[in-house]
Amino acid sequence: MARLFFNLRNVPDDEAADVRELLDQHGIGYYETQPSPWGISAGGIWLSDENQRQRARELLDQYQLQRRTRALADRQAAIRDGSAETFARALMSRPLYVLVLLAAIALIVALTLALPFLLLG
Question: Are 20 and 45 in contact (CB under 8 A)?
Fold first, then answer.
């Protein structure tokens, strides 16, 4: 019986392609379901053979550890060379956008905190 191996919700296309390639390279049978048009189901990668689940899980864990290490190294390199996106850099490059977002956040927080008192008082 097939079991869901990898949920594709919020998974970047390159990561999904890497997982497919990993399974293909190691001869692990799978099939893929596509996301629903209304966003109810995200789609996923399903293993055809339950007996290969442990092996596939080990391969996926190794891959995700490598991906995490690479992403952290890329982030550290961006911080070192000054190209990382920070709040200050976003404020300098798009001040109106950032200020509008901050105002919207403040409005939502104010309404959330004040509305119960306004409705009950």
Answer: yes
